[in-house]
Amino acid sequence: MEKENDILKIAGKQNSFKVPEGYFENLTSTVMERLEDPVEQEAPVVSMWMRIRPYVYLAAMFIGITCMIRVYTGLTSGVDKTNSIVEQATDEYLLSSVDTYTLYEYLESEESSK
Amino acid sequence: MEENQEKELIRQFEDPRTCRKAFEVVVNSFSEQLYWQIRRMVLSHEDANDLLQNTFIKAWTNLGSFRGEARISTWLYRIAVNECITFLNKQKQMAGITLDDVDGSLLRSLEAPEEFSGDDLQKKLQQAILQLPDKQRLVFNMKYYQEMKYEEISDVLGTSVGALKASYHYAVKKIEDFFASND
Hints:
By secondary structure, chain A is mainly alpha-helical. Helices cover 74% and strands 0% of the residues of chain A.
């Protein structure tokens, strides 16, 4: 590259920065001295509660959902039961309010219409 | 570092009995080139030394999460670059509070005889490089001084090869302009 050559002509790539004497000779040992040994690092203590906590939460969630389903289905079946009682009561009331003659007449007219 | 040697080192990283020795080989192999990359960004030896140590400490701490998806050198360069950018951003934030000039404080390193031995031309080149934006400066240093391939720089910085070529081209142009305007 022509421009790079221009810079090379002007100043070159020489390194003019200075380092203290023996710096690179001791660098590796200086760095290594600052590193902690991972084997000596203690593993973090995990308590029994911490270990079983997710399972407890999961179980509690299932129990909660089961209870909610039971309460809901219980309420729904209760409504159905109430409805059937009301229907039965209504039928009984209507039958009691109609006399035998009217009923006979109605059945006969139904038969003749067929 | 050869591919087979790298694979062997990665295997040794996984064993607590051998990981320290393997990491020592890595420190020995890459510390000098990483130091120069950092030094050219922060200019002062003291800061470069601190950032280099932090780079290796972070690499060591995260050794368990390194699975060899990238080359060891790429992984270390990424950490070093992040350390440099974080450091320079902090300096800029501090300068905002203290109304100090960051480039000026970096340039003072070039004036100290224990830090820099170059002549006026060398000093001028460093001043020209310093006026580049941080990322462009990284690209220029990696390509010009470290002589890294664009593909390697792309792996480190996560930027496309095309964008890197453009960035380097602009950097060279700005440096030339700096020289032209300061003749």
